[in-house]
Design a protein that fits this description.
- The radius of gyration is 17 Å and the shape is elongated.
- By secondary structure, the protein is mainly alpha-helical.
- Helix 1 packs antiparallel against helix 7.
- 76% of the residues lie in helices and 0% in strands.
Amino acid sequence: MTPFELSNVVVLPFWALMILAPLWSVTRRLIGSPWIVAPPALIYLATLVPVASIVLPAVVNPVPAEIAALLGTPTGTALAWAHFVAFDLFVGRWIYCDSRSRLYSPWWVSPVLVLTLLVGPVGLLLYLSVRSIVGGGNVAADPA
């Protein structure tokens, strides 16, 4: 299994729990830990280390053509994907925890989580927008 494929495999169970079983005690316990992002972050690190001498100069002084060339390689694609899924999961976890602490209905939060899984920043913007409209809810605990 490639790092790209493995990145998907390690995050999908967490997304499935948040979206399909948001009220289950196992979901609350697992998603309550920020360490759920460790698997894709470790895949990112393991993929980065062998090519760090190429990647680090490119990201320290980003030039569009060089970034495009890097991302156009299998390793660059795997790095970008592991980065995306790790941070999207972190954002999804925050949305899940924040919405649970505010006692928001999973009926509207779960579709937002699906959107976050697919196009992370759009899901985050939607959640923040709806949260601004809906208000604080009944904040039960610190979502962190």
